[in-house]
Amino acid sequence: MTELTITDLHKAFGTNAVLTGVELTVPTGSLTAILGPSGSGKTTLLRLIAGFERSDRGTISLGGTVVDEAGSIHVPSERRRIGYVPQEGSLFPHLTVRKNIGFGLPRGARGGGRVDELIALIGMEGLGGRYPHQLSGGQQQRVALARALATRPDLVLLDEPFSSLDPSLRAEVRADVRRLLSAAGATALLVTHDQDEALSLADRVAVIRCGRVCQCDTPQCLYDTPADTEVAGFVGEANLVPGVFVGGSVRTAFGDLACHCGAGVQPTAADAVVLIRPEQVKLCPVGPACALAGRILEREYHGHDCVLRVKPDGEDGPDVILARISGHVSYQVGSSVAVSVEGPVLAWRADGSGLRGRPAAP
Amino acid sequence: MSATTVRELEPPAQPLTPEGGPPASARRRRTPRLLLAGAALVGGLLLLPLGFLILEAAQDGWSTLHPLLFRSLTATLLWNTVSLTVVVTALCAVIGTLAAWFVERTDLPGRRIWAVLVVVPVGIPDFVTSFGWKSIFPSLGGFGGATLVMTLAVYPLVYLPVAACLRSADPAQEEVARSLGLGRLKTFFRVTLAQVRVAVLGGCVLVALVMLAEYGAFEILGFRTFTTEIYTEFLSGFDAPAACALSLVLVVLSVFVLAGEGLSRGRGRQSRAGGLAARVPRPHRLGRARMPVLAGFFALVGLALGVPVGAIVYWMLHGGTSTLPSVSILGAAGHTVFYGAAAGLLATLAALPVAILSVRHPGKSTMLVERSTYLVLAMPGLVIALALTYFSERYAAGFLYQSSAMLIAAYAIMFFPLALVAVRASVAQAPAGLEEVGRSLGRSRLEVLWHLTMPLVAPGLAAAFCLVFLEAVTELTATLVLIPTGAQTLATQFWAFQTNISYGQAAPYAGLMILIAAIPSYVLGRWFDRLPSRAVAA
Prior knowledge:
The complex is a heterodimer of chains A (362) and B (538).
Chain A lengths: L1 E12 L2 E12 L3 E5 L6 H9 L6 E6 L2 E5 L3 E2 L7 E4 L11 H5 L11 H9 L15 H13 L5 E5 L7 H18 L2 E6 L2 H7 L2 E6 L2 E6 L1 H6 L4 H7 L3 E8 L2 E4 L2 E4 L12 E6 L4 E4 L7 E10 L3 E8 L8 E6 L9 E6 L4 E4 L13
Chain B lengths: L3 H4 L16 H4 L5 H28 L1 H8 L2 H34 L5 H7 L8 H11 L5 H13 L1 H13 L3 H8 L4 H30 L2 H6 L4 H10 L4 H25 L25 H28 L11 H32 L3 H11 L6 H15 L8 H11 L1 H13 L3 H9 L4 H29 L3 H6 L7 H10 L3 H35 L1
C-alpha cells in the first residue's frame, strides 16, 4: 500500500525554481529518507507535503486522497493528519512537556493516558512538568517526536531532526527515533543531507538533486549500484577510475575486474568510468604479479578502520586512490604497497549514454 | 538615515537558516495586502507632524524664514545646544562605559547592588533631577550647571546597552588577546572596547537625542537652547514662523545625529561560531584600585540619585505655602495614568502591524515603512506638539486642540519607536515555525492564535505598553503645550508649583510621578531578564 504519492511536483520562489518535477512514492509503514545536498529543495518538498506551501504544478496524495493539486486543491495543514518534527524541535516554549505532547489531542484527552503513554515511550517519566528550556537537545527532539506521534498521524515528516544535536548524541537519538517510529507503526519521511544517517536509518532512500528525485532505492542498492557518478560520490566515498569494457568485465590499471554494471552489457572497447569503493581496495606489502605498486601519501586513522590515500606509481595510472583497511594493520606514510581491487565493480559508459536516471542536459 | 539606534536594544535575531537554499523569509507567502496597508497607514500618521512642519515652512516662505534663521540668536542657540550636547554625550560615554565595565567585568564589591543603583536615575525625569539640584544649590546654572545635571541624569542611557553587551559578549576574545601577548590595558582598548563600540554608539545617540529634545531641565537651570527658545516663542503670542524656523534647525540636528551613527558604525560585526551559551567570565581583580573605584561609585550614585531624591524628600518634609490654588494630587495622578495608559495602548496597537511586517515579511516595501517610522526619532516632543497645534489652529479651526485625543496621539507618536522595539521583540518570540507545527497537529488557525501566538507575544506587548506608559507619565514639554484646558497632570502641576518656587508643594507631585513610573520599570526589568532563556528555548 502506498501512503504518499507525489507526481510531477513543481515549486518556484519568484524566479528561483526549487522543485522541477519530483516523483516519489512512500509505502505504508516504511521510513524513507530524502537525501540531498544543501539547496537541493528537500526542505521545500517537506513543507509542500505538510501543507505550509502550495505547489505550482503536480499533485500530492496522502493515503489515496489528493491533498495538493496546483490551482484546485489545497487541504490545510491541520486536516492532513500528518506529524511534523522541525529541525530545531520547535517545542512551544511556554508549555510543559505534557502540554506540548498533548497539544494536538482533543480537549478531553490532553491530560489523559495517551500523554502518559508517550512520555513512557520516550523514556521521560517524571519530566512531564519540565519546560523546554530545562531539557537537553536530545530530550527536546524526543518530545517533539512524541508530540507529532500523539495524534497517531498517517505520516510523520522529520526535517533534519538530528542536525542540531552533538555528534555523540546523534547516534543515540537516531536509534531512539527509529525505535519510536516502528513502535508506533508510523510511516515516516525524513529529510537529511547526511548520507550516513540516511543509509543507516531508512528503509528507502530518495536522492534529490537540482529539484528532482534522481534515484530512490534501498540503502544497499543505492550504495552498490548508484545511478550515476554523482550519486555514487554523494552516498559514500568513491574512487572513479578510467577503464575499457572487455566482454563481461572491465579493464583497468588494476587489471580486468568483474563488472556487475547497471548499464547492461556494453560493447567491447567502449570507454568506461569504473566505481571502486575504498573498502574494495586491498593493500599488501609485497605485490603479486597483477597488483599495481604505489606509495602511501596520507593516513587517516579512525580506530575501527583506517583510510589511506595511495598514489600509484607511473604516469598514466589513476591519480590517487582511497583505500579503507582494517584499523589494526599499520602502514607508515611514505611506504610502498601493492594495490589490488576486489570485484565486482560498477562501471558506466564514459560518454554518459549508459547512465541511468541522469537528468536531461540543460 | 539609520534606524539602528533602537535596534541595539533588541534581543538577538533568529539565526539564519543553515541551508544554502532560499532563506526562510523567501519561503513565506506573499506579504498580506491588509497588513502592508495597515503598516503604511501607521507610517503615514507618524510622519504627519513632520509634514505639518514642512507645510508650515512652505506657507511662511523663504523670505520670512531667511531672516529668522540667519540671525545672531540662532547662532547663539546653535552654539549652546551643540556644545552642550557634545560635552554631555562624551562625558556620558566615558562614565557609562567605565561603570558598565566595572560592574560587569571586575570584582567590585557589591556589584549586584551597584548594577541596580547605577540605573535608577534613568527613572527620574530630567526636569526633576534639575529641580533637585537647583532647589538645593540655587546658584547652579549656565553651561557648567547644565553639563553636570544632564550628565548625571542621562548617563544610564549609555550604561544600559553597554552592560547588556558586555554580559553577552564573548569573554574568550579577551583571553585570546592576552594569549597573543597583549597586556591588560591594551586588551581593554583593542578588544573590549571594540566589542562594545556599537553599544556605546547606540547609547550616545540616545543621549544626544534626549539633549536636543530636553526643555524642562534647561528652563530650570536658565540655559538657553533651541527647545527653551521655541517654547518661549510659543508662549509669547504664537509666533509661528519663528518657532517653525527654530524647529526645523532642531530636526535637522537630530537627523544629523541619527545619520552620523549609521556612518560611524562601520562594517565590523561581532560574530561567533557555535552556540550562544557564553561562559561567565572570571572577573578582573581590581587590587589596589578597589578603593578609588568604590569611592567613584559612591560619588556617582550619591550625585545622580542621592541629590534629587534627597531634595524631594527634604521639600516634602519641610512643606511650605503656595499662592497657587491647591489642586487634588489624586486628580492629577488620575489624569496622568489615564493619558499614559491610553497612549501605551494606542502606540502598542499601532506598532503591531509594522512589527509583524518587519519580522515575518522582510522586504523592500517593509523596510521603507519601517524606516519612515524611525524619522519620528528626529522629532523632539515639543516640535511634534507644536506641529499638531499649528495644524489644528490653521487648517482645522482649532479642532481637537487641547483635547485629550490630541495629547494621547502626540504621546503615541513620540514614543512609537520604543513601542516598536518591544513589540518586534515579542513578535520574534513566536516564530512562524511554531504556528506551522501547531497547525500540523490539527488545530485551527484561530486556536493556534489563541493558544500559541498570544501567550508568547503577550508579555512583549505588555512591555511595549509599559515603556510608553513610563515615558508618557514623566513627559513634560509636549504635555505643557497640549494639556486639555482645566486638566492637570502630575508633571504639569509640578511644573506650575516649581515655576512659582513653591518647592514644598511641587515635591509630592514629583515623588508620586516617580512612584507611578517605578511600577512599569519593575515589570520591564523582569521581562528583559526572562528574554534570553525564552529565546533560547524557542
